[in-house]
Amino acid sequence: MSLTAGVIAVQGDVAEHAGAIERATTRHGKRVEVREIRTAGVVPDCDLLAMPGGESTAISRLLHREGIAPEVVDHVAAGKPLLATCAGLIVAARDAGDPRVESLGLIDVTVDRNAFGRQVDSFETHLDVSGLAKPFPAVFIRAPRIAEVGEGVEVLAEHDGQVVAVRDPPVVATAFHPELTDDSSVHDLAFFGRV
Ligand code: GLN
After folding, report:
1. pTM for the whole thing?
2. Which of 6, 57, 125, 180 has its CB surrounded by the most CB atoms within 10 Å?
3. Closest to 177 (Cα-Cα) out of 10, 6, 12, 11
4. pLDDT at 25 > cutoff 80
């Protein structure tokens, strides 16, 4: 069976997610066509979606301007998987904690933008992620912190006492960048429920 995957491509890390999606789907014995989403009308054809890191103010503004935002809301309401990473997590949150971000309310969490410091404070660490057999090499770049976690939201990982990955089905969201390493196991978890 061939899947159609979409990567929100209005701004941010697009090619890296496309590569990780291809590796994850191949591991699960499926073929995939990855489409980059810059305009309305593509999301309804997608079986799974990734919303990348970048700049959450720009991503949310462009999603609304292009009419993509309601399509992403419908995708999640239909129970189809979404992986939201870093700025994508901020846009997917119930409350982004910043009036310049019109978040989509796809996951019942609030976030604090840039809680782990400025660009120079970017770092990599090995994280224990629930559902993964081995520690995941997590790259944090001006990452948000997940502040409040609603009922029904599963915490998948913490770093220094802060929540940095959650699952609120059908959404998996991470404060870090799982697309920036060769390890596609977070994509496996988000799209296939297992590695
Ligand atoms: N700091 C960015 C924001 O708040 C997110 C950074 C990222 O996606 N790497 O939008």
Report:
1. 0.96
2. 6
3. 12
4. yes
Domain hosting 52: range is 2-192
Band of pLDDT at residue 161, cut at 50, 70 and 90 = very high
CATH of the domain at 75: 3.40.50.880
**Structurally, how many domains does the chain consist of?**
1
Which atom of ligand 1 is nearest to 58's Cα? Answer: 10
Q: How far apart are CA 187 and CA 195, in angstroms?
A: 8
Task: Tell me the mean pLDDT in the region 131-147.
Answer: 96
Q: Which atom, in ligand 1's list, is nearest to the CA of 56?
A: 10
Cα pseudo-dihedral 132, 136, 142, 147, rounded to 10: 30
- The DSSP bridge partners found for residue 165 are 157, 174
- How far apart are the CA of 142 and the centre of ligand 1, in A? 6
